[in-house]
Amino acid sequence: MTKGTGAPLVDPSVPLVFPRNMNRISGPDANSCAGCHNAPFGISGGSGDFVANVFVLGQRFDFATFDRNETGPTKGALDERGNPVTLQSIANTRTTLGMFGSGYIEMLARQITGDMQALRNTLAPGESVALASKGISYGTLSRRADGSWNTISVIGIPESSLATVGSTAPSLILKPFHQAGRVISVREFSNNAFNHHHGIQSTERFGVGTDPDGDGVINELTRADVTAAVVFQVTMAVPGRVISKDAAIERAVIRGESKFQAVGCAACHIPALPLGNQGWVFSEPNPFNPVGNLRPGDAPALQVDLNDASLPRPRLKDVNDVVHVPAFTDLRVHDITGGINDPNREVLNMQHAPGSDGFFGGNGKFVTRKLWDIGNRPNHHHHGQFSTMRESIFAHLGAAQSSRAAFLALSAEDQACVIEFLKTLQALPPGTKNRVVDEKGNARKWPPTGYTRSTKYRSGSSATPWLGSSGLYQVENVTFNSESDEDN
To answer: Is 363 strand, coil or helix?
Structure first.
């Protein structure tokens, strides 16, 4: 009796029972999270091929049919305005991402949000402040003389976090989940997904002792169940690198990483972001969770040390009380499309209320993709319709136009070296202890002898990423060794 959004069906006379109990577009659409999250090793929590794409926002329909004889907005064939939908206009199709290292990602977003809110809270009427955290700029926030807020110069933050009413301040909450930046926490994502994809309703979202979907089952997912699902996801192993000991490949990888920096890719795909102040201790619930999800004070807090070596490996570790999270992202949203006619643009904008002008205005803004598992993903770009990394790079327009042009200006060999570097960034087979391994899974030392990675490179500066003893690129005449380095 409910949609994948949790709202009641438009037409309760046609409930979602067999043969209408499963629907690939509007949901429920899977019997298991692992049905879509299973690559590259067939384990729960991974990514998915194009066949496992999600029809984001399709769940606002009772049961998608495309049968134009059906009447009633969002019942089966008509949108909120009564217009017939097609497969291309009913939802945004997105590739399934892996949850590898998601605990570190959520904690980064929490710290960045906290930093920006602290800056916001210093503003008096008539003042402005530059928003920044972890070396990343988020533009400028201002207050007008009457105390109202001006967010026009704020960048990289989802629209839904910039909303203001009168003197009410924008939340500035960074939302690292959903590729368009719409979900705050793994918990919020899980509460949404259990209902959308499986028809399983959590008590914290729908109430204890209730049966809003009318299937005869109450308390389908307890608060503890959701917590367990969250802890499983946030403690998944972090991705690492697979680098062959073949000397030619090693040279290509080093050259490719330097070119990745030189053409400007690392300006957004920042190689690593710092977590300080014990940020690697994941706590539940997230302090920024919206209503309908567990919030501080609702239950005793739970803490998990994400660096605990007893958790699935490989793991990160703190160095001088800082953990560098090598996810290759700035967690900002960017418009990387070429305008309204770009086929890579989404038809619907999930930052706006369904049925509104903004909702139907489409979307070109996406959270900078985390590249740390890109090397063994089965498909590429937010829609998963590209089978190669090179195709995805070519499709980067808008804010990424200059980097794309610089990549295209590289020689064929240097372009291939960039791809060779990206191929080393992988989720590693279960049981792998070290973050950097060779093609046989053996731990290896990286970078090679005589090279050091610039510490400034981690924060996305223009510093040279690989430095030889002279401080210059020395890619052509490198003497490599195969010394292994436990937990490098």
So the answer is: strand
